[in-house]
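Note to self: keep these together.
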Amino acid sequence: MTQPSPCSLAAAALVTALLPTISIAAEVNVYTSREPALIKPALDAFAQSTGIKVNTVFIQNGLEERVKAEGANSPADLILTVDAAKLINAADLGLLQKPAAALPESAITPNLRDPQGRWSAITLRSRVVYASKERVKDNAITYEDLADPKWKGKICIRSGQHPYNISLIAAFIAHHGAEKTEAWLRGVKANLAKKPSGGDRDVAKDILAGVCDIGLGNTYYVGLMLKDKDPQQRAWGAAIKVMDTTFKGNGTHVNISGAGIAKDAPNKANAEKLLVFLLGDQAQSLLATLNDEYPVRAGVAAVQTEKLFGPLKPDSLALTDIAAQRKLASELVDKVGFDQ
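Structure:
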């Protein structure tokens, strides 16, 4: 039998010595419907603090369908969306699992997370009334008051079927029932200055142009306009104020960005670490500051956001209760011909 040479024995010994230091790079795969640039700073901070590489897959539409189609072979570890209804749908489709790691749930009110622990809100975005600084003296309004005839011909809004508005209308149903919501929608429609169109930035644009005095929009768009390089957009943002907008006897309607662990996550432990990180003080403060949103975790300051829009008292409705009324909300929008 041929004996190994001294050189081959030395090579083998060297490989053996190196084996403990060779490892597969730790990573986590994030499937998201949120623009990657808006979450990249927080994901970069996580990667820097943990050494875990974050791979982001942006899926603007059909995220849940994509994960379902991929099945058990899906590389998705964390599912991050910009609408509570999408997270709830993912949970209902069996695409999410409860993390084994402990989340800071005591700092997040129960209405902003899944009762079964499969997902949690990460940030809050409020849907409020924009108003002309010049023509509107009031600083507060209720959603119910949008149907008051005093606003006839003075309201602008994007399509009633847009997910942002469907969520608000669903919340109105959860508060007041279908019959009162239908009457409210007819009242709001009668007060419109123009056919619903465009986006939230267009509402601000129309207010500056004098087309309308008030309109519905998400708060963070105001921050985006004020920081935009385009002087026209900065002018739109500067022309409006954000009114303190609430349901009568309750709080402000909010939607969320949120996340949950994918059911078949190949890197589950890393996904759990990322979710815990996103709910921690550093990421909460970072996301709120960069995106002009509100932290979901109590006790985290949102200095810049509150400077622009004031403190937030979210509506007490559970996001699951709002999502349950979305189908009916869409039907009522069509029934009253809101977008016609």
